[in-house]
Amino acid sequence: SKAWHLISRPQGLPTMDNFALRELPDAPLEPDQLRVRNRWLSVDPYMRGRMNDAKSYAASFQIDQPMTGGAIGEVVESRMEGFSPGDMILHMGGWRDGGVVGLDMMPNKLPADALAAGLTPQTFLHNMGLTGGTAWIGLLRVAAAKPGDTIFVSAAAGAVGSAVVQIAKAREMTVIGSAGGAKKCAWVKDLGADAVVDYKAAPVLSGLTQALADLGKPGIDVYFDNVGGEHLDAAFATANDFARFAICGMIDVYNDGKAQEMKYLIRTIPARIRIEGFIYTDQFFDCMEEFYADMGGLIASGAVTMRETVHEGIESVPDAFLGLFAGENMGKMLVRL
Ligand code: NDP
């Protein structure tokens, strides 16, 4: 099997020169190992942070080593108790077409009942996995959003954002989403958003102010941040008293770490805004059963739908990853092998 290796640390936006597709050594399995053929790979914005040599919540990728990430694979050989050939598993041995998976890659069997009920395996990389879980935890637990609240969510046509829009609508919230371009904004509207801000067409603050005026709302109660920068500042400017900000991501600054100008940060004081950053894995295991039951129900009822942007083949993984920063995806960006 082959895996994408990080061969140099990117400065700014990564380029193909930072990556190389190399053969992995073949070896007999040791106890507690599986041999896997991957079917679906996830690419996620957080992986950009792992390409830096800086301390963060996820360990840095090492130079000349294979990269890792979420993947769905089929077991072809097993020396791990509880796993047999043919099992479909979720694990962290991504960026490769297959190979050896040990306990460090956290293999988990996909629930047979969910697959039998028609959920596709790759759903466990998005709405029933990292991105759906992040949306659900951030909106309902971190921001404690409740029916009647007015929610603003950035990158609303992305994987996390599109789940936030739909979960919020299912809970009777008023939702304003922002996305880049008319096509994405039309889709966010189709998902049920009450208003959409096209941040590429006009400054975020003017779009958000207009959307609130059109909806007859005084301001936002919750901001779900995927972007940072100008979006975050517009949220400060329009926050109602006691607004809650769930800081999920700041993709606007992942590549260049540019300074963020917050003209309206001071509103945190008079509006008594609560701002909380969160990491999915910190909270997921506490609420996993509740999440699966609730999200499973929302998917089954059609309240939460799924859209995928799919690249084909192991060669396309870096392109798919880089596409996240160019906004090439609607819904979840995936690679099918
Ligand atoms: P998305 O599917 O949302 O893909 C990224 C999207 O971000 C693009 O499609 C693009 O949409 C938008 N974007 C890219 N660059 C910019 C920019 N400079 N300004 C504004 N928008 C931009 O990715 P995910 O759903 O996987 O992730 C969304 C966010 O959630 C990320 O910030 C990620 O890091 C974070 N995250 C955090 C987790 C946590 O535990 N805290 C877990 C998982 C994700 P457009 O065309 O609209 O610009």
Describe this structure in words.
This protein has 337 residues and is α/β, with parallel strands linked by helices. It folds into two domains: 2-125 and 306-336, Alpha-Beta Complex (Quinone Oxidoreductase, Chain A, domain 1), CATH 3.90.180; 130-280, Rossmann fold (3-Layer(aba) Sandwich), CATH 3.40.50. The protein has helices at 46-50, 112-116, 130-142, 159-170, 182-190, 204-215, 229-238, 280-300, 317-323, and strands at 2-6, 19-23, 33-42, 65-66, 71-78, 88-91, 98-102, 108-109, 150-153, 174-179, 195-198, 220-225, 239-247, 274-277, 308-312, 332-336. The strands form three sheets. Strands 3, 5, 6, 7, 8, 15 and 16 form a seven-stranded mixed β-sheet that branches. The chain is globular and about 65 Å long. The relative contact order is 0.14. NADPH dihydro-nicotinamide-adenine-dinucleotide phosphate (NDP) binds next to helix 3 and helix 4.
